[in-house]
Design a protein that fits this description.
Elements lengths: L17 H20 L4 H5 L9 H21 L18 H5 L5 H26 L17 H27 L5
Helix pairs in contact: 1-3, 1-6, 3-5, 3-6
């Protein structure tokens, strides 16, 4: 039975195998970003704080890109997914952050949620094929490749770091606070 907290986040399992525990923490972090960006209009998703240009909308689009890059492109060596496949990344390395203001809140949330859904399917496929020890099919320039375990841990870290940013941004938008 999955326990869901007051913000709608599934609590990671207390006693499960390694894969279920890691994926439980990843889903908790994903749900935290969903909570922090929920119910905001374009102005709320485009708000900044302090000297940073970071926005909650930019975070959603960035995390959609990161989900796609790690769980599709790196893990399975698939081509970049839309809309990331048409970007000139050398000319616009921060495209996902900079272009988020052009998207509606529904477009941003859908882009991110679709990326998460595809990532879950990609992870399930990889677990069935080789478990957490499976190496990414797209090696790094030096020829090494991270394991699925490393990728999942990296994604937990990526979400946790950006969820700290989301805490500050959401509080600046409407005063909503919470862990």
């Amino acid at each position: 039975m999955t326990i869901v907290d007051d913000q709608g986040r599934p609590e990671p399992p207390l006693a499960a195998d390694e894969a279920a525990t890691l994926l439980g923490f990843l889903d908790f972090q994903r749900a935290t970003l969903a909570w922090k960006s929920a119910g905001l209009d374009a102005a709320g998703l485009g708000a900044t704080t302090a000297a940073s240009s970071m926005t909650l909308g930019g975070l959603l689009k960035h995390m959609a890109y990161v989900e796609s890059e790690w769980f599709s492109r790196s893990l399975h060596a698939r081509d970049r997914e839309a809309p990331f496949d048409t970007v000139d990344w050398k000319a616009t390395p921060d495209w996902e952050w900079d272009s988020a203001a052009e998207d509606t809140p529904d477009q941003l949330r859908t882009l991110w949620q679709d990326a998460v859904d595809r990532s879950r399917a990609s992870v399930a496929e990889a677990l069935a094929e080789g478990g957490l020890d499976q190496l990414a099919r797209r090696p790094w320039p030096d020829g090494s490749a991270p394991s699925l375990r490393w990728i999942v841990c990296h994604m937990i870290e990526e979400y946790a770091r950006h969820n700290g940013h989301a805490d500050l941004l959401r509080e600046a938008v409407d005063g909503q606070r919470g862990e």
